Amino acid sequence: MIAALTLALALAAPSADAAKLRFQRVDFISEVPGTFVNYDIPMAAMNPVTAGLRWVEQIQVVVDLPVDGLSTGVSLGAQSLFYERPLHEAAGLSWGLGLQTDLLLPKGALADVSWRWKRIRLGLGGCVTSGASWANPNWSAWQLLPTVGVGVGRSYAPTVE
Fold first, then answer.
1. Residue 4 lies in a domain
2. Which pLDDT score, from 0 to 100, does residue 158 have?
3. Which residues constitute the domain of residue 70?
4. What is the count of structural domains for the chain?
5. In the chain, N or C terminus with fewer CB closer than 10 Å?
């Protein structure tokens, strides 16, 4: 679903220059899927190997798509499609909404407010995720989690043109 939506948006790009994907950042603590900060860090003292592996699994590379404000993120554990707009440009604040998937199976949604300073992005928000999987595509159980994101990348803030 995310791949098809990404392809459709790329085909709808108005010009050849806009059709280029562009690296945005690497989230070393990702808001997608939101479980690392909530579940793995508190258990790190009891099982540091598992926490370390889950940290690697959630590191997300984020790339801007040809549509203004739209980006996609990919990690070993999840994928996301995210729309971000400025909230207060002078202060580096923006808001965003996104969808998250697991191996392209839709699993939830995300909303956040982020702050950018030079190459650093800090995000705070919330995500709602289901327990669905390809083995059990059942969206009847949901959880709401607070999210924290810390990313490093190019100097960038979403702008209104």
1. no
2. 57
3. 22-153
4. 1
5. C
